[in-house]
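Researcher: Here's my situation. A collaborator sent me these components and asked whether they could plausibly form a single complex. I don't have experimental data yet, so a predicted model of the whole assembly would be a useful starting point for our discussion.
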Amino acid sequence: MPDVQSMVAEFVNKLRKRKIEGSQATAKCTVELLRSVISHQRVPHANQAAALIDAVKAVGQQLVAANPVELAVGNVVRRVLHIIREEDLSLTTAAMAGLDLLDASDDDDIDNCKGIGYPAMSAAVVAAAARSTLRPPSLQTLLEGTPESATVPYTSSSGADSESKSKSADKSSLTRKLKHDVIEGVNQLIHEISGCHEQIAEQAIEHIHQNEVILTLGSSRTVLEFLCAAKEKKRSFRVFVAEGAPRYQGHLLAKELVARGLQTTVITDSAVFAMISRVNMVIIGAHAVMANGGVIGPVGVNMAALAAKKHAVPFVVLAGSHKLCPLYPHNPEVLLNELRSPSELLDFGEFSDCLDFGAGSGSLQVVNPTFDYVPPNLVSLFITDTGGHNPSYMYRLIADYYSADDLVM
Amino acid sequence: MGAQKKGGGGARVSEDAEEQSRQRLQAILLADSFATKFRPVTLERPKVLLPIVNVPMIDYTLAWLEYAGIEEVFVFCCAHSTQIIEYLEKSEWYSHPNLVVRTIESHKSISAGDALRYMYEQQTETSQIQGDFVLVSGDTVSNMPLADLIQEHRDRKKKDEKAIMTMVIKQSKSSSLTHQSRLGTDQLFIAVDPLTKQLLHYEEDKIDHPSGSVCLDKSLLESNPSVLVCNDMQDCYIDICSPEVLSLFEDNFDYQHLRRHFVKGVLVDDIMGYKIFTHEIHSSYAARIDNFRSYDTVSKDIIQRWTYPYVPDINFSGNRPLRLGRQGIYRACDAVLSRSADVGASSVIGYGTKIGDGDKILNSVIGNGCCIGSNVVIEGSYIWNNVTIEDGCEIRNAIVCDGVKIRAGAVLQPGVVLSFNVVVGRDFVVPAYSKVSLLQQPTTEDSDDELEYADSSSATADQLSGLNLQMESKASELGPDGAGYIWEVCEGAHDEEWKHSVAPIPEDKLAEITQAIDDDDTDDESVVPTSGELKSDADSINTDMNDPNDDYDYFEKEVEGTVLRAVEENIKVDLVTLEINGLRLSYNMESADCAGATFYSMMKLAVDTPHNSASELYKNAASIITKWKELLGFYVKKIDEQIEVIMKFEEMCQESPKELGPLFTQILHLLYDKDVLQEDAILRWAEEKAGADEADKVYLKQCDTFIQWLKEASEEEDEDDEDEEEDD
């Protein structure tokens, strides 16, 4: 499949050269690429799921290696793998059960009517179905009761999800169905990723109150939508934007906010501590959320979080579900940071005489990290597209989205 | 799913159509520097394949061009073209989705000018270059965006037909002491129109001939109300060219160097009113690796991440990314470091490299598959791949190429360059700035900067075949168990040694220069307002005095060559005079100098012709003088010039008293007979010499009788004249 391969190569190239920025854009590109990989993958009769998983894994490894800092790529690859495993499981159980599908198809219709609003819900249902087999036994699964009694009702509902085609339960249609179902699932994931802003923004009204002062740092599309959603609901509040040196993306955010009619004040990053006592809530967008509830965000975020802690100001992190990363930050395999070019900090020409290593005098070194890590104890609340969560709850969400087999790719 | 596929395909088609509507972005990459600065390393491998921070230079250039949106690159290969093509075939560049890489081979080109002329000839057949193109060399490291710049160039071209080139410059302060940039190149003075950014003046302050002043043409100021003169700019050697540039090179077949000839030609000679514009880059990086010093500087810039995203921890061209740790240490995941090894800041350690106990590594780059023993000190050095360093070695500011073995206890002093597979013997100390290779230094004929190793690919093969024999005989140059030749520094390159080496400029040298400047200041503080920037070079006073002599030597050599050729090929006197006149103008000499030089070369010719006895030599000289007296006569019209000839002759006789000495009088007489010299000249010479030291009077005494005879003759003549007058 040369065109898939060239697409992969092109995307890998883009990732390598850091041409794509922002986790949402990257996640979307990744999942679209994986969809075409799956749709072009020829599946053998036996063990089709394994073939798909291998294909996705192979591409996924390339993508992750191309830009290990962009954790969203790995997250999405793992999500897709999880979808394949789930669909495979539900199909086999459906084939085994092989009955009472008619009433279930009603359920399915309802799902379709509701449209995009509940993809996460259906995924959650499927995940619940697969829970007993996909996850290592935990206290909860043990308490949930006997596996047999748990599986049967779930099977019926997941069979519903996979539409009424499984009526003819013979092998050949199953082959096609698995791929079809997986692509369905991936499409839902695409919906979920592209709709995450609205999902999160919908909750804005519950968190932002009248006459509050909100502080944010750097630029995040999620934060922008979140604040604007609150504004549209006739909440009046003020926003402080820390500029986010050295890339000054806060300036862009401030511009956007003013254009949408919000009361905006730009401050320097170093003024955050001075201003925090006036602030009612800090809202930032995350680059990635780690499995322990720690947050990777634009540089300077940890300082803001510490300041918020000191003044007991709630520190709220907005993150789409594609930003949930099943890895732990102390894992050496996880590259947490990237050092960018010093030219963002200072002008090469002005300082070129200090950079002269040949002269033997002291030389100037410049460090320009992109990200900051905020430990979970500084985070008050995560707002994801499935609602608000405590940092300590993150591992539960992650368990729903990813299967344990895929953590190490 | 079918629908989705179609949708995707459709989008691509429309994109393609868009792309076709605009011109393809093309680049010419010169994979040959046409210089010898990287010798002896470049004898065995082309410069563009030399690793810089463990990745070949050409990969940086290609990755950047690809990133900047260039769609087609013509790689012009010259020296070692097979190696370059092999490398590209193995790499991923040939199968790159966005970038078409084509190679062009030409072994005849010996300069950038030749390369472009070759491109032009190809062009007429195939018309590969469709429009504006980017001209870079394969040793450029940059991350600047190009698309906008090319657009800017095209827009300007549309408005002004004559704007044929846009040159990229970047601010970079040069050292006030050594007058060289960070990259080790000469300080650059440029004048730019601040509004249009047109380049008005371009001058490299040559290290060997510091001019001390920058001359701007007055007409520049007349036609441009404001001119910005700056000396803190660095030429990135990245040019956006219109097709006219190629045809200009074709028309002016003597253009060799892009800057020294082409830019100068366009600016000074004002060819067809063509204009060059500049573009200054601020936030992005661009530099060309021109010499060992810039190799060092650019390596450090890469490690300091100025070239982001072309840094070692990002896989930008199929290289295996290294892991970036604290303090800017890049380390491969499978590198083995001893616990007691001390790896300092800004170091790079490649794949499969082993570092032993107690090693100290600072500011250095170590390649793949190296094996480093214990208690080794490596500081500011560049160790390439598969190098073995045994226990207790000390390496400071050196470049060590692939496959080198350094035996226990050896020391490399700053500035050393060890070429491929050299073996340094046990406890041997390689002296500072020495260049060591398994290949012998080529004869000094081609020490000329421009005449590069175009033929070296064939020469190398020859040398390699004869290598084993040579090695055995002279292996002891690097100690008893070593292998390699220490190259001698070519004449006149002593300066370059410390200016262009990887080692930082030593303290004492800096002190020396500072001292010189201080002296200078006290000398001319009253005369020149010390603006600092336009001030004359540190040692300008000394060199100014030496300069004429140097020039005269060159001039003499050239004249000698001309006369020799004239004699051999029997060229007409008129043509020879024309040539010598040309030389005279280009070296700014007086006609007396011409006379001296011509006579000198004629006599030299006579001496060089095989002869057995003095009489035979005389015969030789006589025949040459008889034959070419017209040529000589052309320059010796005045008495002064004739005296110059005699002095020159005397000088020659002093140099070879055995051969020419005894013939002094005879030849002088001959010259008198042939009407080359007049008696006045000889007599005046005798008068002048009369007051000289005894030692200087040898030849005067020798021809005493001749002069006496001349004197008498002239007196007689005078008398005759008087008689005649009386007769009237």
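Model: Some features of this prediction you could bring to your collaborator: Confidence is low (pLDDT under 50) at residues 1-21, 445-474, 523-546, 724-728 of chain B. Chain B touches chain A through 47 residues (CB under 8 Å).
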